[in-house]
Amino acid sequence: MSLPYAPRFAFYDGKSQSGSSTSSFQTIDPATAKPVADIHTTTHSAIDAAIASGQKAFPAWSATPPIERARILQRAAALLRARNDELARIETSDTGKPFTETSTVDVVTGADVLEYFANLVGGGGLNGETTQLRPDAWVYTTKNALGVCAGIGAWNYPIQIALWKSAPCLAAGNCMVYKPSEFTPLHASVLAEVYAQAGVPPGVFNVIQGGGDVGAYLTKHPNIAKVSFTGQVTTGQKVAGSAAGGMKYVTMELGGKSACIVLPDADIEQAVDGAMMANFFSTGQVCTNGTRVFIPEAMKPAFEKRLLEKIQYIRPGDVSDPNTNFGPLVSKPHYDKVIQYIKHGITTDKAKLLHGGPETPSWLASHPNKAYQNGYWVQPTVFTNCTDTMKIVQEEIFGPVMAILPYKTVDEVVQRANNTNLGLAAGVFTNDLNSAHKVIAQLEAGITWVNTWGESPAEMSVGGWKQSGVGVENGRKGLEAWVRNKSTLVEMGGAVPTVFAKL
């Protein structure tokens, strides 16, 4: 059977490597559950070859002046923008996200980050510091590339995450071996081709394909200098532990159970819009989702009334339709996981189901594309009267499941919001910016918002606290994660200071 997309293989030495595999699997369109491409798992020997390709390219690429690297990466960003809709359709086929989302967010924000880091290094972002220690001595620092680095992507924002990792990596003078998620692998070889077309030398950006065993072999490899991973906490702990054993640099962007706090003076309209963005955008498959929505007791009835009125504006359906803004979950295993959480919320947690539930969405029966009935569609679901001890409140669901938690005082809500071992994101909705700053300052999270939710521009360094991660991505601090610093003290006094002089 002919599939919509060409087979995907490993990519190294500047080209696709059809001999890099002895087995394959298929990637599935979540909207229809139909296969869209054959993906060939990279063998261990081919992973070795990809890393060796990076090692061969590293000396010349790291020695290339930053301004020249910047020009190449700027061309790549321009190519991504020129191919935006094509790449967005690939992302829609792979993730199930509506084209209205992938065409305006996924490729665009990835290209923004690539352009940001190209401009940053081109404008002196890799310059060190100079300190006059005393009249005849000074200290200078330099920023040096690490070597060949590993990037492990996630399935929810495939090309965006690939660019969040590869952009600062390559801009700093490193080479990368990148493994996409086995659930959303289509973008990786296309990105490699874009880099090559822009002038990135062979071996600087390489791709391998496969599941967790492929990723484990890559991250444990002795010739990998750094591992950058995005994914769930339990996997990240294993990856970080393995990398630490080899004294590798790491960046870990892991999960969250973030608090979306509506303060008593907040505008209900804005609060509802924010809570919906924090729970239902991208079908809830966003690590920074604010799935614990804290509402003042007195405001809860009005908030829930307006929320139910606005839920009708969630429009599932044909993912290519310009009116669709809600897609399926990414895979059958993930669909089963989310449905189990919803059932647990009803039967075991005994939360009040305000909207949605585990049943098949009713619109599927009348949809003209009967293949959609096999897709991984779920209803946007809202539980209310939730308590902090419920499983649906404590654990990351990674689906469109909102938990409304009433509270009495601001001091109480801050304490409850922080009562989790995760600390990725948090947000506050209020008309009083003084209150906003005071509450934000007390929240134990690395990414915070006031009167908005979810935006992570290239200029904004983002990273989790607690078990939600190590290090940051994007912004000026994001570049620092891809270099090692060298300090040099220069003595110009004409004599070597010594305690071993003749008395």
TrEMBL record:
Enzyme type, top EC level: oxidoreductase
UniProt protein name: aldehyde dehydrogenase (NAD(+))
Catalyzed reaction equations: an aldehyde + NAD(+) + H2O = a carboxylate + NADH + 2 H(+)
Family membership: Belongs to the aldehyde dehydrogenase family.
Catalytic residues identified in the record: E253
Keyword field contains Lipoprotein: no
EC nos: 1.2.1.3
Keyword field: Metal-binding, NAD, Oxidoreductase
UniProt GO MF annotations: aldehyde dehydrogenase (NAD+) activity; metal ion binding
Keyword Membrane in annotation: no
Domain of life of the organism encoding this protein: Eukaryota
Domain Aldehyde dehydrogenase: 21-487
